[in-house]
Amino acid sequence: MQYLIRRLLWAIPTLFAISVLNFGLIHLAPGGPTAVYGTSPNVSPKELEAIETRLGLRDPLPVQYIKWLRGMVVGDWGISYKYMIPASQVVLQRSWNTLQLMVVTLIISLLVSVPFGVLSATSKHKSVQYASSVVSMLGISIPTFWLGIMILLAFSVSLRIIPSGGMGSIGKEFNLMDWLHHIIAPAIVLATLRIAGWSRYVRSSMLDVMGQDFVRTARGKGLADSTVLYRHQLKNALIPLITLIGLEAGLLLGGAMITEVVFSWPGVGRLMEESLKGRDYPVLMGAFMMMAVMVVIGNMLADMGYAAVDPRVRLEAGPQGT
Fold this sequence. Notes:
MetI-like fold
């Protein structure tokens, strides 16, 4: 418990620094939310000034940040310039869609990467080891946006097996099979990079664990190979992967931004792309902070999962700290 409290306290200055950096970069970018009005001949300079005053954009930048931070702390993220509703409502609604995509991506990644990594580590055939290395390198090297476009061209445009985008068929009520039909393609695209990287981690960890003394002791006791593999080798080999999953929460969100745009998935990634174009500052800041919070939570869950898998790891700091 002390460890979790200490991590939460450290998260406060971290999130504060992230908010200052993001707020400054967003507001220092050329243009602004009123740029679209400034190009219209029907909007006079006085009307433009009134719009900026109403949105608080004529205040000094530090004053704007203090107002935003005060509202962020109490749950008032501001009003979306585009949708004219609370920015928190927009971000949270889209976050649920992104969370669905992340969960399916993680399930696919784990179901494929763990067996693939174990097979490449335990197989004595050189061809299997070479094939796993080639597949891993291809998965890491292929750009996410390119893979998404190729899948759309092949399976949506040419073969018409998958839909071209969205979360469900237009005009139809929610249906589990229809939802899976729409989510499977973007989830596979997002999972490709994870599968390539995580399978290599599993393979490396398995090879390291296979040479440990406790594995040789288990085999010397006459335990079955399956028992040694699952109860001793795999359990210890998954420790680095659990940590990696938590640390990659932010990277998964970054990849989701590109994938959501390609597949028209209405999540946080696509929302950020739309908000960047429209200079919707409240929504952008809310989305950025949501991502930062998810990264912090992911790191904490990774540490907790690390301790759950390995009893030798304790979350409470000792005399020297951990």
